[in-house]
């Protein structure tokens, strides 16, 4: 059975790219903003990993991650943050809740896939 990844991004080109590089190995759930993603999670869905853009309409990536981490239920779910922000490292350092990995757009697909595998492996080790 494929692992499930929640992808939250408002850029169609990024969604298409992620679908192209990840859909053979993972079951992708696509949401175009943080509000839709939170609604999906509140319906009782439990992804194995979350990939989120930082800059999105309605609820930005930082607020989305904060909501995940304070919920308790998704506190340990691995999160990979994507952003086109020039000062991404500074933004991530100042966030009160951590992302497991972060990538500046455009990102290297091979590095992203490796980070996903590593995050899922580490999550499995910690929870088994």
Automatic annotation (TrEMBL):
Taxonomy, superkingdom: Bacteria
Q: Which SMART domains match?
A: REC (SM00448)
Q: Which residues carry this modification: 4-aspartylphosphate?
A: 53
- Signal peptide (residue range): none
The name this protein goes by in its record? Response regulator receiver domain-containing protein
Checking InterPro entries in the record gives:
Bact_response_regulator, CheY-like_superfamily, Sig_transdc_resp-reg_receiver
Question: Pfam families under this entry?
Answer: Response_reg (PF00072)
Supply the source organism for this entry.
Answer: Daejeonella lutea
SUPFAM superfamilies (alphabetical): CheY-like (SSF52172)
Domain Response regulatory: from-to ranges: 4-120
Keywords, comma-separated and alphabetical: Phosphoprotein
Q: Would you kindly state one Gene Ontology biological process term found in this protein's UniProt entry?
A: phosphorelay signal transduction system
